[in-house]
Amino acid sequence: MKSPTSCLSAALLLAAAQHTLAFGSSHLHCAPISSSVSKSLSTLPPRTSLHLSASSSLAADSSNDDSSATDTKALTKQQKRMQQIRKEGGFLAFNTKFGALNPYAIYYGLVSIALGLVWFVALTFSQLFYKVTGGRFDKKRRLPVFFSHVWGTLLMLFTGSFPKIENWDIIREFHKSGRKGMFVSNHNSWMDIPFLGHTIGWHNYKFVAKKELEKVPILGKAIKVAKNVLVDR
To answer: Which one, of 217, 199, 216, 209, lies nearest residue 233 by Cα?
Structure first.
């Protein structure tokens, strides 16, 4: 017979061993005491996990608050953007992933495309003309520049968007002198193209443009056929 004290000691050692190392089967006859000690020891991990769960929930609540604050800031920024669009484009203006639009911008775009189809046909005719003649005629490519100028003039006419030009007499005197020059725009919109053409007048001018514009439908053909200056950046 083993004494109760030795039995209790062995039970404590067995319980500790069960939590640290994997022992083989035990021959002790104190299973009830060992079981009760194991149960008492096993109550600690749940308390710890409850504490961690509470900390995790607090962290989650904190992150949710930060997310809500970010959404509020983003919404405020979007509202400011819409206010600016409405101020500049009228109360019917709206924002898209391509930029802000209003009814006039849509009308301008449709007219531009419709006239652009006619412009494309004229440019194709010019291209065939230079191919057939081997480029022996109109070496400075005045014909496609003329067609492009007609497109821009009709576009401004049908959309009522002729620009107001100040000091136009200086430009006229410049043309009379026969000198060469460069006209530079701030490029606020696609309307810069017809505006520059209207400002320069019916002359054989060439644009300086980035090479990527060759891929733009119609405009790319106009750039290549008229032999405008392309910059490969």
So the answer is: 209
For residue range 14-66, list pLDDT tens digits in order: 444 444 433 333 443 333 434 443 444 344 444 434 343 434 443 445 555 55
* Mutual angle of helices 142-159 and 192-200, in 10-degree steps: 110
Q: How far is CA 57 from CA 52, 60, 61, 64, 69, in A?
A: 9, 5, 6, 10, 18
Could you tell me the CA-to-CA distances from 181 to 110, 133, 159, 178, 196 in Å, in that order?
Answer: 33, 31, 29, 10, 13
Ramachandran assignment for 181, one of left (phi > 0), alpha (psi -120 to 50 degrees), beta (any other): beta
3-state SS class at 99 = strand
CB 206 within 8 A of CB 229: yes
